Amino acid sequence: MDLYESHLVRRELIAEGTMAFYFAKPDGYDYQPGQSFQLTLIDPPPTDDSKGPTREFTIASAPHQDELMVAMRLRDSAFKELLKEAPPGSTVTISEADGDLVLHRDAARPAVLLAGGIGITPFLSITRHAVHASLQHPIRLFYSNWRRELAAFLPELEQMQQANPNFRLIATMTEPHASAQPWAGETGEISVELLRRHLDDLMSPVYYLAGPPAMTLAMLDMLQEAGVDDAAIKSAEFYGY
User: Fold this and answer.
1) Which residues make Cβ contacts (< 8 Å) with residue 234, sequence separation at least 6?
2) Most buried residue, 48, 77, 125, 185, by CB count within 10 Å?
3) What global pTM score does this model have?
């Protein structure tokens, strides 16, 4: 596996408890929207973290962009604390990109993206690329969060919906009553009923699933019970670090 040297350029808080980290893109670094890489901290201080200095992250930026961006929930872990406190310019290594959560080639076949929480990152890359490249794929993104404050990149996704007539965002909140911001959109978990309200049919799309393991497995079971062919489903589980 090829390794590349990079460095932290900047970071920003993008939602409650969620931060984006921007890294310099090495010369010649290529990837497909939806893929991931392994990020390694160089010479981190000693911690009690037995997992070591390397974690895998989906690349949330799109290939046409100048920086490589990843995003993560700021949970209590030594790795995330080190990355959150690292000064701009800190050196890291990144692996070559990998993963098959990439958009299918047949532009006539719809793509249905089902995201929970920080599972939005591969789909942000895909939708950014779709807008930039004027892809003709019909794309439907179902994005579930507890409440609006936790929905990373929601304003950008709403704007991209206006920029690409082939892209439609269906955001849903499971605990909108706990939010300080009003919510007039869908509520509840992603369900077959929700899909049927927004899709012409359930069998023609290719489905892409990303989110916490329990949610991803529940969505997989939901699609299988609805009769969707396993070959039409791609999934990625996002574990906390």
Assistant:
1) 100, 101, 206, 207, 208, 209
2) 125
3) 0.93
